[in-house]
Amino acid sequence: MEEKPRILIVTPEVTYLPEDMGNRVNYSAKAGGLADVSAALISALFDLGCDVHVALPNYRSIFNGQSTGAHNRELAKIRRRLDDERIHLASDRAFYYLHNVYSGYSDKDLKASLAFQREVMNNIIPRVEPDIIHCNDWMTGLIPAMARQVEIPCLFTIHNIHTMTSTMEEIEDRGIDAASFWQWLFFKRPPLNYEESWEQNRIDFLCSGVFAAHYVNTVSYTFLREIVEDRHAFVESRLKNELVHKFHAGCATGILNAPEPEFNPTVDTKIRYNYGPKNHREFKAKNKRFLQKNLDLELDENAPLFFWPSRLDPVQKGCQLLAEILYDIVSRYWENNFQVVFVASGSYERHFHNIVRFHNLSSRVAVCGFSEALSHQAFAGSDFLFMPSSFEPCGLPQMIGGIYGTLPIVFDTGGLHDTVRQMDTEQNMGNGFLFNVHDSAGLGWAVDRAMDFYKMAPGIREQQIQRIMVESVLEFNHTRCAEEYINLYGKMLKRPFLV
């Protein structure tokens, strides 16, 4: 197409929007990684000259409560100027007075979702007249069915597998004309007809998005394959089955997210000493000493420093594996002054505090609640990072680690499989250390491999880390991510539209 397709991105979360989109407000409403991904994709699409619009709930209380001054100046660095008004705010009392994107109450979150989708369907889509609609997660899961009805190709992106359900009675009571596209919704049991299903047969929002969308993507290809191959018991069978159908029809893929541009040690304003691939050895050592001093660890720039960057969640993130072996690995490498820094919050935080107190490890292990600034400094000052997730739709810390010359130790799954390759210094390949059995012995084995690397001649390590930093910047960036989405949009527009 010579004329650029008009893209409408529908998202319940975003951390910033490009400048001069007909607004004077700092739009930021974040509950998780979807906000960062949405903001980055929109900004990168602008940078590439795309005709892109965004639909977002009008979170009046959240937007009005945004900080100003230095925070806004920092955001302005990554904004792009536009000529037209491209922000389309959905208006309803259901989210005017929210102080967080999600209230924590399922009934309130459902009402907010229905109000948002009603405004997108009834007002925003007719006003924008998009060529492509790009929906994200369960809060937009009904829109692909409406897009089928009006024959607009729709991409549905799954960032996480949380979902909600409702009935057509409740959906229509909120002002959505579900009767016009009910046959494209995914019901908990096969519907006999509209009337029979109206009151009792509940609709799954996430499955509806997958079922009705023209195309579906997850945020890594391997995570999609794992769902299709039934390797995750927590994925409900109905979602798995719908993704299997899409996958075998050639209508599902994976596109990796990418870290924000601010995650780069050459420009990072949150670290003490900036550095790049060529001078990383000197300045990572200085950043390490700065971090050690601030956290009351033993001052030793030659100490191998390991960093835990993710929330301390034993269901997904694998922190219990490290808890089982923490004392053992610190003891095994005591003469090397082995150190660990946690910058993370979560249910397992108290367990690590208890381990440190019981074994008197405070000079070797620092357990800190999450802090954005401290997390940046830990990326800059550490040699390795832990990410032994049992499953990972995408993951960003392992990518950020490579950019900072902090090599990831990961379980071989999902987005970690797609972004981390086993270190092989003889072949001048790899960017981290993977283990294949999700237990504490597997993690311990990977730590030993990391220590083998750390004990190599400094010149060999310096050469490998320089290579990894350069490769990571080139591989993990938003331009690459946006170009993959643009290619997917083009593929969708070329496909025959089958209703």
Describe it.
By secondary structure, the protein is α/β, with parallel strands linked by helices. The protein contains 20 helices and 15 strands. The chain has helices at 33-47, 60-64, 70-76, 93-96, 106-128, 143-150, 168-173, 194-197, 205-212, 221-228, 237-248, 280-294, 319-332, 349-359, 372-381, 397-404, 414-419, 440-454, 458-475, 478-494; strands at 6-10, 51-57, 87-90, 132-136, 154-158, 165-166, 203-204, 215-218, 252-254, 305-308, 339-343, 365-368, 384-387, 407-411, 433-435. Strands 3-2-1-4-5-8-9 form a seven-stranded parallel beta sheet, sandwiched between helices. Strand 14, helix 17 (414-419) and strand 15 form a beta-alpha-beta unit. It is elongated, with a radius of gyration of 24 Å.
How is the topology of this model organized?
Layout: E1 6-10, H1 33-47, E2 51-57, H2 60-64, H3 70-76, E3 87-90, H4 93-96, H5 106-128, E4 132-136, H6 143-150, E5 154-158, E6 165-166, H7 168-173, H8 194-197, E7 203-204, H9 205-212, E8 215-218, H10 221-228, H11 237-248, E9 252-254, H12 280-294, E10 305-308, H13 319-332, E11 339-343, H14 349-359, E12 365-368, H15 372-381, E13 384-387, H16 397-404, E14 407-411, H17 414-419, E15 433-435, H18 440-454, H19 458-475, H20 478-494
